[in-house]
Amino acid sequence: MKICLINNLYKPYQKGGAERVVEILSNKLSDLGHQVFLISTKTKITKDNEEKNVYYLSSSYSELNQFSFIKRLIWQINNLIDLKKYKEISLIIKNEKPDLVITHNLMGLGLLTPKAIKEAKINHIHVLHDIQLLHPSGLMYYGQENLINSIFAKTYQKIVNLLFNNKNLTIVSPSKWLLDLHQAHGLFKNNQTKVIPNPFVKPELNYQKIESKDFIFIGQLEEHKGLDLFLAAAARFTDYNFLVVGDGSLTIKGANNIKVLGRKNSNEVSVLLNNSLAAIIPSRCYENSPTVIYEAAAVNTPVIAANLGGIPELIERFGGLLFEPDNLDSLIMTIEEFIEHGVILKNQNKNKNYAEEILA
After folding, report:
1. Hey, is 166 helix, strand or coil?
2. Which of 120, 141, 162, 305 has the fewest CB atoms within 10 Å of its CB?
């Protein structure tokens, strides 16, 4: 089968977990004998190590956070009705003639993409990763749940619902929470749906578990990830090290027990997680299905996470501890509980072949 994967970012321009999911899916589909090609975007500055089976379309999506409010609003309106991208994607699909298209994040590729797929009369699977079909920001902070209930958001959702109107469309969500949230706002009520947890590749480590006093944060160094809570907690536990892995716009200042390690590749992340006491996920935005929880489970490292979005589903699956979102005292109490009592891991990290589940 010839399969097209579409996501707004892909290596070497990747940023987060969605891109890793697409990469794993591409590799697994190829392993199953399918012919796979991708459609994604690229920045103004082209990188030399682009993938050969990827159509990279020019987009300013990666610069969006640098735009003024007015410029960002104009960009979002254009993203809804981007005829240029629509024609480019339509032409690629016409020439390549895939049997199946699997879309992921479409911000920057245009929300006319589903229309192009529908007109080609090709089966379409869309994988949810966040709330960007409910609100163009893609982010919803704890305590700001009315964001997706505003008149603006409801109008946006109606447009999205029209653009995704396709009887040949199947919706896949990594968490029941995210699927339920979309359907509660009128999206995908008449489509076939399936909850399939994100894939992960169990690392082949030759390392044994070591005695550790390290807590680790892995993610974007941004306000919505709750990094400030992690740093504040470090000041309360001076006998432990607090490791920060990732990059972003925030400048890190804090206690002597904070170590900033920068961005790491997946193998390096696995080693760091394996050698850590626990991973802490202090997000103050609603998370769908954080990749770091899967990565931690793969090396049997416990997780302490904010009780938001789809996170409780993964804690239920793998084991771990939850704390009240955006609450430093709750995080500190939960860390104290973990240090005193530990946590029972469920070790349920042997999921089915993700690619086979998607195709089924």
Report:
1. coil
2. 162
